[in-house]
């Protein structure tokens, strides 16, 4: 039986799609081992078989690494994995399960050299959109120079992009200089990869996917939501199966059950974004002013930024939790809108659930995702920031109302429902993403 090793970065937004992809490969009959690097003693190392995928957990203390910059953290990961992965590969070989291919997070370009050195195929997995990939690729090739000289920008396969539609590392390169090098570096050896996977689907990014295919034979394999939210072919595949934070599931669901259909705005900024105190206050006041109910995920590390007594003052219409089962929330009929930072997973999850969005991007690829949400897929409204870079309470109230009320709200809802069907079609039997996975499996069998 063919055996694949899947290695994501140890971040929620990278583990989720690569774990789901692993499940899809296992569904096609492959043996799959997913490597999870855990650096937090609060999380039990997993040594178990979740669904059809075997999980190998590598524990590595990183107190120091957590505090240092992205480049150093990547180096830390590389140091650990370049020792531990060959050990794991040779152990699997010795017990009769040799690895045929390593699917590595596109950020780990060194993994391709490692795979080739071991005589194994290598596949790069991109966890952001093809549009964002195209922007980074153009920077890598020197077509787009950073800092930007002028805007707007026209790149092949993409709509006209204003500077603020570009990923923050390009729009504001001073903000996180080490990240720019990392995201652009993903293209350094892409032409040597045996396969290139993208968590997207063909019709979602038709033009840019077509352009990319003139360069590399990329395979879109998304959206990578659990099967129960899409084609329902994978039995019991109801959630991602791995949470960096503990969700307040019962509290959320019970609370949603008490609300009428389409009356709740779900608010979350994902696993990493940190809002400034002023922004947090404006958001809190905007939610308080808005006519709708709200369910707001405020991670434990952010909770002290809430205005004092906010939860007591809004308990009639609002619930604040530290983490939630996002897919279940989006699928709940009480939810009528998702106020999101537009992380790529959250964007795909909202699209696939037919939930309209208020896009409030914070950094990295979220700015470009927000542009597509509003102008290309027309499934939401993007907030405007004021001269101080703040989204005011009035703006928050206005955007929620636009998405949840009136003619524009209805049109956005119609578009959202259409994308939901197209997302399902992509992963269903014979859909574009399903075919791409089939082709990969067939090619591996022939190797
Ligand atoms: N998520 C979740 N519960 C929450 C907030 C987020 O399960 O309360 C999940 C969400 O479903 C998504 C992931 O965390 O799969 C966040 O990934 P995304 O790419 O949207 O954002 P990131 O965290 O990488 O910024």
TrEMBL record:
InterPro entries: UDP_glucos_trans (IPR002213), UDP_glycos_trans_CS (IPR035595). Belongs to the UDP-glycosyltransferase family. Keywords: Glycosyltransferase, Transferase. Transmembrane segments: none annotated. The keyword Lipoprotein does not apply. Pfam families: UDPGT (PF00201). This is Glycosyltransferase. It is an enzyme of class 2 (transferase). Its EC number is 2.4.1.-. SUPFAM superfamilies: UDP-Glycosyltransferase/glycogen phosphorylase (SSF53756). The gene is LOC103332927.
